[in-house]
Amino acid sequence: MKKFFVFLSSSLLILTSCVQSRELENLGLTTAVGYDLAQDDLISSTIVLENFNPQIENSSRTVTAQSHTSKGMRQKLNLETSKNIVSGQLRVAIYNEELSSKGIYNLVDTLSRDPSIGNMIYLCVTDNTAKEILNKKDPTNANSNIGTFLYNLIEQNYKGDFIPSPTLHNFLTRLWEVGRDPQLPVLSITDDFVGITSMGLFENDKLVYLLPMDKIFYLNVLSEDMKSGNTEIGLPKGDLEKHFVKPAESMERTQEGNIIFITLSHIQANKDIKLKESEELTFMISLKLKVRIVELSKSLELGDPKTIEELTKVLNKKFKENLENTLYEIKETKSDPVGFGEVYRVMKDSKLTQEKWRELYPSSKFEVKVDTTIVQTGVID
């Protein structure tokens, strides 16, 4: 009798696994979705489908349809595939720059209302079309799904403190906070490869500016809790020149210009933003940085405490200059990704509205103080 029950149980397990396998083979698992602006106020939607078929190495494909609404597109997309499209594996949503500039709230809200989609999926913008991005292949693995590649691309840059958080949850939280705006990474195709090239700044749900790559660090250090950031910074030789290592003539590397470049890693940032007590709308930004020196374009006597002291002063001055330039550049766009309005609301006006902050923000000023500590130089004592 026991043998019969063992045989029956085994048979049921095999049958169940076969049924589950057949069910999966009938599904089109959406790993990425992209939205572009089409003619006649239509929206073009492209999805990447992963077809569950262990016998086919590269079983992903893209499907495109146009409609006025996200759900309308879903219906049309289902008409173009033999698989039942499901969103439970969605990892990335991409919005074309032109579409984003007109507002993407309705499209983002639809994702948040779908119970099968988690709120930790990544959102991003592209200055190409979303369709172009999603029709690219993973350059590291021809059989990989492009949706998975894009997810990993964004994930490692976010976790590496290169870009601010681009999750669906974070976008909606910032969208509804008074005195703070969303920001999303921008994907571009360069030399046939997809990569992050800038940061898209929003005013409410509308894209207003693409912040250049060299400014993203300064935005990130103020808008996120940086634990292990990286950056390359150019410093004027000036007072550092007397601390240069004097190599043998045959080893001397000629370097043009008056700039020395330093790569810093494992950057930890501790920031404090306060509203200055005066009639002027001035924010006091205090930033403490701990950095490690990884590489220099010109060798310095880093074993000498006087060199470290001088280098720290120069770093403080340059960080302050770059931060202030970035903040005023961002302010010109009318976007507030750092959240100065939130600081104002907490410290000055608890009844602040988004409309009122839009009136106040353009007149705001910034005073930055930076205190850098070099915790490691790479020098072996």
Helix count? 11
Report low-confidence residues grouped into runs of 5 or more: 4-9, 11-22, 248-252
Indicate the mean pLDDT. 86
Radius of gyration: 26 Å
* Coarse shape: globular
Compressed to H and E, one letter per element, the order equals HEEEHEEHHEHHHEEEHEEEHHHE
Roughly what percent helix?
A: 25-40%
Terminal Cα span: 76 Å
Instruction: Return the domain count.
Output: 2
The major β-sheet equals: 9 strands, mixed
In terms of structural class, how would the helical and strand content be classed? alpha/beta
Residues in β-strands, percent: 25-35%
According to DSSP, the number of beta strands is: 13
Helices and strands, with pairings:
Blueprint lengths: L1 H24 L1 E11 L5 E9 L8 E8 L2 H9 L5 E3 L5 E5 H6 L2 H9 L8 E5 L3 H5 L11 H14 L8 H9 L6 E8 L2 E11 L2 E7 H11 L5 E8 L22 E17 L6 E15 L8 H28 L7 H8 L6 H7 L4 E12 L5
Parallel strand pairs: 1-4, 1-5, 5-6, 6-7, 12-13
Antiparallel strand pairs: 1-2, 2-3, 7-8, 8-9, 10-11, 11-12
Task: Give a structural overview.
It is a lipid-anchor. It is found in: Membrane. The structure is a single chain. The protein has 381 residues and is α/β, with parallel strands linked by helices. The protein folds into 2 domains: 27-213; 229-376, GMP Synthetase, Chain A, domain 3. It has 11 helices and 13 strands. It has helices at 2-25, 70-78, 97-102, 105-113, 130-134, 146-159, 168-176, 213-223, 305-332, 340-347, 354-360, and strands spanning 27-37, 43-51, 60-67, 84-86, 92-96, 122-126, 183-190, 193-203, 206-212, 229-236, 259-275, 282-296, 365-376. Strands 1, 2, 3, 4, 5, 6, 7, 8 and 9 form a 9-stranded mixed sheet that branches. The termini are far apart. The model is unreliable at 4-9, 11-22 and 248-252 (pLDDT under 50).
